[in-house]
Amino acid sequence: MSAIYLPASDLEAQLQGQRLTTAEVLYFLPDHPDLLQSFLWQTLDHAPDFPRIQRFLDFWRREIDAVIHSVQISSVPDIGPARIRPVRHVAKLN
Q1: Where do the H-state alpha helices sit in 4-92?
Q2: E strands within 5-94?
Q3: Where do the H-state alpha helices sit in 1-94?
Q4: Higher-pLDDT residue of 3, 81
Q5: Quick count: other Cβ atoms within 10 Å of Cβ 4?
Q6: 22 close to 35: Cβ distance less than 8 angstroms
Q7: Which of 12, 29, 31, 80 has its CA 20 to 30 A from that of 20?
């Protein structure tokens, strides 16, 4: 069995190729099929396969009585320098 290496920090995880990933799960309960609910989850994961999110969804299907309607996954690109945009107008609201 291979050892599992856990990064010491989020920065180290991102340097290893993980990305901040958001999964939005739309689901309904079997006794209320007309009521869609939303669950948001953020984690560091590897694109494009997203193994951590896949494990979470497998757990959901096995252990939770809610039926998944759809899942939307989005992730930020690899880490890089901050982007700065100049501000053209400043307004003050009272």
Answers
A1: 10-15, 51-63
A2: 18-29, 32-46, 67-75
A3: 10-15, 51-63
A4: 81
A5: 5
A6: no
A7: 29
